[in-house]
Amino acid sequence: MKDTAVVALSEKGHTVKVSNLYALKFKAVLDPQDFRIREETAIFRPVTEQIHGMETGSIAPDIMEEIAKVSWADLLIFQFPIWWSYMPAILKGWIDRVFVQGFVVDIAAGKIYENGRLKSKKAMIVATTGSSREEYSGNGIHGDLEEHLTIITHNIFEFCGMVVLPPFIVYGAAGMSPAEGQHELERYRSVLDGL
Q1: DSSP 8-state symbol, 165
Q2: Residues 90, 61: contact at Cβ < 8 Å?
Q3: pLDDT confidence of residue 101
Q4: Residue from 130, 140, 143, 172 carrying the catalytic annotation
Q5: Strand, coil or helix: what is 11?
Q6: Which residues of the chain, if any, have pLDDT below 70?
Q7: Choosing from 14, 113, 142, 143, which is the catalytic residue?
Q8: pTM for the whole structure
Q9: 136 is catalytic
């Protein structure tokens, strides 16, 4: 799916940058080591350190590389397998570390939601599930997946000011035949072509 997106968007003249968190061996834990110059050393207050880190440019280099990509992008596609009805821990850790207060929002100045600092950007979730569409429906055993995803789309993306595009979800991906998988890739490509 990542390759389909890169090819489809590149063919339309867009430049694409990819952050493969597993290939990067991205550290998923927000901790004091993320800040080279600390505001407070007696206690770790992530919000205080993020704001101070943005002001002083003292945030860890791996975070700054990802912040540069987010700053550059018009559209952020978050592609992941649904894990326990949510995103995998490594992606949640990426958000914890990269969506730095002072960069994505400024709560004290009211720069949240429609005034969030990422208001010029769009976000889209592209996800695969092991369970079927029926299991992730409103009457299904897991509940409505798109409703689960509002925790991400509203409480993270919209909170930062981004416009949220409809998600693209492939249900039951692990049990698909190659032909079914190809059909889903073609369906995804048509969505990308329409962006």
Answers
A1: P
A2: no
A3: 96
A4: 130
A5: helix
A6: none
A7: 142
A8: 0.95
A9: yes
